[in-house]
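thought: fold this chain, then report.
action: predict
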Amino acid sequence: MDTSQDRKAKDLAFAHAPAALRAPCKTRQARAVCSRLREPIVSARRVNRAHLIGKLLALSGDENSGDTVTSVVLSWAHGVVVNLNLCPFAEHELDSGTVRVVNARTATTENNARLVFHRECLHLLDADRSELSTTLIALPLCAAVTGDFLAFTEMVHDLEDMIENDDRFADHIMIAAFHPKHQWADASSEADPINYDKRAPVPIINLLRTAQVDEYIEQGRTSGILERNQRTLERLGNAYLEKIYSELAAQLENARQH
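observation:
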Protein backbone atom coordinates (compact mmCIF):
# COMPACT_ATOMS: atom_id res chain seq x y z
CA MET A 1 0.00 0.00 0.00
CA ASP A 2 1.34 3.44 -0.91
CA THR A 3 2.51 5.73 1.87
CA SER A 4 1.40 9.37 1.96
CA GLN A 5 4.83 10.33 0.62
CA ASP A 6 4.45 7.91 -2.31
CA ARG A 7 1.03 9.33 -3.02
CA LYS A 8 2.41 12.84 -3.23
CA ALA A 9 4.80 11.75 -5.96
CA LYS A 10 2.32 9.55 -7.82
CA ASP A 11 -1.20 10.80 -7.39
CA LEU A 12 -3.14 12.43 -10.16
CA ALA A 13 -5.96 12.98 -7.72
CA PHE A 14 -6.65 15.07 -4.69
CA ALA A 15 -6.60 12.25 -2.20
CA HIS A 16 -6.82 8.89 -3.91
CA ALA A 17 -4.54 6.96 -6.24
CA PRO A 18 -5.23 6.70 -9.98
CA ALA A 19 -5.79 3.50 -11.90
CA ALA A 20 -2.19 3.75 -13.10
CA LEU A 21 -0.95 2.66 -9.68
CA ARG A 22 -2.91 -0.55 -10.06
CA ALA A 23 -1.10 -1.26 -13.36
CA PRO A 24 1.42 -4.10 -13.80
CA CYS A 25 4.72 -3.52 -12.05
CA LYS A 26 6.55 -2.89 -15.32
CA THR A 27 4.54 0.22 -16.09
CA ARG A 28 3.90 1.42 -12.55
CA GLN A 29 7.15 3.40 -12.26
CA ALA A 30 6.63 4.95 -15.67
CA ARG A 31 3.10 6.00 -14.78
CA ALA A 32 4.25 7.46 -11.48
CA VAL A 33 6.74 9.56 -13.40
CA CYS A 34 4.02 10.42 -15.89
CA SER A 35 2.11 12.22 -13.16
CA ARG A 36 5.14 14.49 -12.84
CA LEU A 37 5.50 15.13 -16.55
CA ARG A 38 4.98 18.55 -17.94
CA GLU A 39 5.18 17.80 -21.60
CA PRO A 40 6.79 20.35 -23.84
CA ILE A 41 10.44 20.94 -23.25
CA VAL A 42 13.48 22.96 -24.37
CA SER A 43 17.18 22.42 -24.47
CA ALA A 44 20.30 24.36 -23.60
CA ARG A 45 20.45 25.70 -27.12
CA ARG A 46 18.13 28.60 -27.84
CA VAL A 47 15.79 28.09 -30.75
CA ASN A 48 13.86 30.63 -32.77
CA ARG A 49 10.67 30.64 -30.70
CA ALA A 50 8.42 32.13 -33.37
CA HIS A 51 9.59 29.59 -35.93
CA LEU A 52 9.19 26.72 -33.48
CA ILE A 53 5.68 27.70 -32.42
CA GLY A 54 4.72 28.02 -36.06
CA LYS A 55 6.01 24.51 -36.66
CA LEU A 56 4.06 23.15 -33.70
CA LEU A 57 0.90 24.95 -34.77
CA ALA A 58 1.22 23.28 -38.14
CA LEU A 59 1.55 19.89 -36.44
CA SER A 60 -1.55 20.65 -34.39
CA GLY A 61 -3.67 20.68 -37.52
CA ASP A 62 -5.48 23.16 -39.71
CA GLU A 63 -8.41 23.32 -37.30
CA ASN A 64 -6.13 24.96 -34.74
CA SER A 65 -4.51 27.50 -37.06
CA GLY A 66 -4.57 30.96 -35.54
CA ASP A 67 -6.25 29.56 -32.45
CA THR A 68 -5.67 31.45 -29.21
CA VAL A 69 -6.05 28.42 -26.94
CA THR A 70 -3.38 26.52 -28.85
CA SER A 71 -1.06 29.54 -28.77
CA VAL A 72 -1.60 29.99 -25.02
CA VAL A 73 -0.89 26.31 -24.35
CA LEU A 74 2.36 26.59 -26.30
CA SER A 75 3.25 29.80 -24.44
CA TRP A 76 2.69 27.93 -21.17
CA ALA A 77 4.82 25.04 -22.37
CA HIS A 78 7.71 27.33 -23.31
CA GLY A 79 7.35 30.08 -20.73
CA VAL A 80 6.58 27.94 -17.68
CA VAL A 81 7.43 24.29 -18.26
CA VAL A 82 10.65 24.91 -20.15
CA ASN A 83 11.87 28.21 -18.73
CA LEU A 84 11.33 27.01 -15.15
CA ASN A 85 12.80 23.60 -16.04
CA LEU A 86 9.80 21.77 -14.59
CA CYS A 87 10.39 18.86 -16.94
CA PRO A 88 13.95 17.72 -17.74
CA PHE A 89 13.08 16.37 -21.18
CA ALA A 90 10.22 18.51 -22.45
CA GLU A 91 12.70 20.51 -24.44
CA HIS A 92 13.60 17.76 -26.85
CA GLU A 93 9.99 17.17 -27.89
CA LEU A 94 9.32 20.86 -28.49
CA ASP A 95 12.61 21.38 -30.27
CA SER A 96 11.91 18.46 -32.57
CA GLY A 97 8.43 19.75 -33.39
CA THR A 98 6.76 16.47 -32.43
CA VAL A 99 4.22 17.86 -29.94
CA ARG A 100 0.61 17.91 -31.11
CA VAL A 101 -1.70 20.42 -29.43
CA VAL A 102 -5.43 19.82 -29.85
CA ASN A 103 -7.91 22.50 -28.89
CA ALA A 104 -10.94 20.32 -28.19
CA ARG A 105 -13.34 23.22 -28.56
CA THR A 106 -16.23 20.91 -29.47
CA ALA A 107 -15.78 18.89 -26.27
CA THR A 108 -18.34 20.79 -24.21
CA THR A 109 -19.37 17.66 -22.28
CA GLU A 110 -17.46 14.83 -20.66
CA ASN A 111 -18.78 12.38 -23.24
CA ASN A 112 -17.47 14.55 -26.06
CA ALA A 113 -14.15 14.87 -24.25
CA ARG A 114 -13.91 11.07 -24.08
CA LEU A 115 -14.54 10.83 -27.82
CA VAL A 116 -11.72 13.29 -28.51
CA PHE A 117 -9.48 11.38 -26.11
CA HIS A 118 -10.15 8.08 -27.86
CA ARG A 119 -9.56 9.62 -31.29
CA GLU A 120 -6.26 11.15 -30.20
CA CYS A 121 -5.06 7.90 -28.63
CA LEU A 122 -5.57 6.20 -31.99
CA HIS A 123 -3.90 9.09 -33.80
CA LEU A 124 -0.84 8.94 -31.53
CA LEU A 125 -0.33 5.21 -32.01
CA ASP A 126 -0.90 5.42 -35.76
CA ALA A 127 1.78 8.09 -36.14
CA ASP A 128 5.50 7.47 -36.30
CA ARG A 129 7.25 8.47 -33.08
CA SER A 130 9.73 10.58 -35.05
CA GLU A 131 6.82 12.70 -36.26
CA LEU A 132 4.56 12.68 -33.20
CA SER A 133 5.87 11.94 -29.73
CA THR A 134 3.14 13.33 -27.50
CA THR A 135 -0.27 15.03 -27.59
CA LEU A 136 -1.72 17.81 -25.45
CA ILE A 137 -5.53 17.86 -25.44
CA ALA A 138 -6.85 21.21 -24.19
CA LEU A 139 -10.43 21.28 -22.85
CA PRO A 140 -11.28 24.98 -22.57
CA LEU A 141 -15.07 24.60 -22.94
CA CYS A 142 -15.86 21.36 -21.11
CA ALA A 143 -18.18 22.91 -18.55
CA ALA A 144 -18.18 19.95 -16.17
CA VAL A 145 -14.43 20.13 -15.54
CA THR A 146 -13.07 23.59 -16.43
CA GLY A 147 -13.82 25.04 -13.01
CA ASP A 148 -13.94 21.83 -10.98
CA PHE A 149 -10.62 20.13 -10.30
CA LEU A 150 -12.14 17.15 -8.51
CA ALA A 151 -14.54 16.47 -11.39
CA PHE A 152 -11.59 16.70 -13.78
CA THR A 153 -9.63 14.25 -11.64
CA GLU A 154 -12.49 11.77 -11.71
CA MET A 155 -12.67 12.05 -15.49
CA VAL A 156 -8.92 11.45 -15.75
CA HIS A 157 -9.26 8.32 -13.61
CA ASP A 158 -12.00 7.07 -15.91
CA LEU A 159 -9.76 7.69 -18.93
CA GLU A 160 -6.93 5.79 -17.27
CA ASP A 161 -9.29 2.87 -16.73
CA MET A 162 -10.28 3.09 -20.38
CA ILE A 163 -6.63 2.77 -21.39
CA GLU A 164 -5.99 -0.14 -19.03
CA ASN A 165 -8.99 -2.04 -20.39
CA ASP A 166 -8.16 -1.55 -24.06
CA ASP A 167 -5.49 -3.86 -25.45
CA ARG A 168 -4.65 -1.32 -28.13
CA PHE A 169 -3.66 1.30 -25.56
CA ALA A 170 -2.61 -0.57 -22.41
CA ASP A 171 1.18 -0.46 -21.90
CA HIS A 172 1.48 1.91 -24.86
CA ILE A 173 -0.12 5.17 -23.67
CA MET A 174 -0.19 6.95 -20.34
CA ILE A 175 -1.69 10.19 -19.12
CA ALA A 176 -0.38 13.31 -17.40
CA ALA A 177 -3.06 15.82 -16.44
CA PHE A 178 -2.98 19.56 -15.69
CA HIS A 179 -5.69 21.89 -14.40
CA PRO A 180 -5.91 25.61 -13.53
CA LYS A 181 -7.02 24.71 -9.98
CA HIS A 182 -4.81 21.73 -9.31
CA GLN A 183 -4.06 21.23 -5.63
CA TRP A 184 -1.97 18.46 -4.08
CA ALA A 185 -3.66 16.54 -1.27
CA ASP A 186 -1.04 17.60 1.27
CA ALA A 187 -0.49 21.16 0.03
CA SER A 188 -0.78 23.68 2.85
CA SER A 189 -3.41 25.67 0.93
CA GLU A 190 -4.65 26.50 -2.55
CA ALA A 191 -1.98 29.19 -2.66
CA ASP A 192 0.90 26.77 -1.97
CA PRO A 193 3.43 27.28 -4.83
CA ILE A 194 3.87 23.51 -5.29
CA ASN A 195 0.36 23.38 -6.79
CA TYR A 196 1.72 25.16 -9.87
CA ASP A 197 3.73 22.03 -10.59
CA LYS A 198 0.59 20.69 -12.29
CA ARG A 199 -1.35 23.82 -13.15
CA ALA A 200 -2.06 24.97 -16.69
CA PRO A 201 -4.09 27.84 -18.17
CA VAL A 202 -6.82 25.37 -19.25
CA PRO A 203 -7.52 21.72 -18.36
CA ILE A 204 -5.05 19.59 -20.34
CA ILE A 205 -4.80 15.85 -20.84
CA ASN A 206 -1.33 14.88 -22.01
CA LEU A 207 -0.94 11.60 -23.90
CA LEU A 208 2.53 10.10 -23.68
CA ARG A 209 4.13 7.03 -25.15
CA THR A 210 4.90 4.58 -22.33
CA ALA A 211 8.04 3.29 -24.07
CA GLN A 212 9.40 6.82 -24.28
CA VAL A 213 8.84 7.45 -20.57
CA ASP A 214 10.46 4.09 -19.76
CA GLU A 215 13.54 5.26 -21.67
CA TYR A 216 13.72 8.48 -19.67
CA ILE A 217 13.47 6.49 -16.43
CA GLU A 218 16.29 4.16 -17.50
CA GLN A 219 18.43 7.19 -18.35
CA GLY A 220 17.86 8.57 -14.85
CA ARG A 221 16.34 11.78 -16.20
CA THR A 222 13.24 11.56 -14.00
CA SER A 223 15.00 11.33 -10.65
CA GLY A 224 14.01 13.96 -8.10
CA ILE A 225 11.64 15.90 -10.38
CA LEU A 226 9.08 16.70 -7.68
CA GLU A 227 11.64 17.79 -5.10
CA ARG A 228 13.48 19.97 -7.62
CA ASN A 229 10.26 21.57 -8.82
CA GLN A 230 9.15 22.21 -5.27
CA ARG A 231 12.35 24.12 -4.54
CA THR A 232 12.01 26.15 -7.74
CA LEU A 233 8.35 27.04 -7.20
CA GLU A 234 8.82 27.93 -3.53
CA ARG A 235 11.75 30.16 -4.44
CA LEU A 236 9.67 32.02 -7.03
CA GLY A 237 6.69 32.35 -4.72
CA ASN A 238 2.94 32.37 -5.25
CA ALA A 239 2.69 36.06 -6.24
CA TYR A 240 5.14 35.63 -9.14
CA LEU A 241 3.50 32.44 -10.37
CA GLU A 242 0.01 33.86 -10.08
CA LYS A 243 1.06 36.82 -12.21
CA ILE A 244 2.28 34.50 -15.00
CA TYR A 245 -0.95 32.50 -15.01
CA SER A 246 -3.09 35.64 -14.79
CA GLU A 247 -1.44 36.93 -17.96
CA LEU A 248 -2.19 33.65 -19.74
CA ALA A 249 -5.79 33.74 -18.51
CA ALA A 250 -6.11 37.33 -19.77
CA GLN A 251 -5.09 36.24 -23.26
CA LEU A 252 -7.83 33.63 -23.25
CA GLU A 253 -10.42 36.09 -21.95
CA ASN A 254 -9.50 38.69 -24.56
CA ALA A 255 -9.94 36.09 -27.29
CA ARG A 256 -13.40 35.16 -25.98
CA GLN A 257 -14.51 38.79 -26.08
CA HIS A 258 -13.46 39.36 -29.69
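thought: worth noting. The two ends are 51 Å apart (CA to CA).
final: C-alpha coordinates above.
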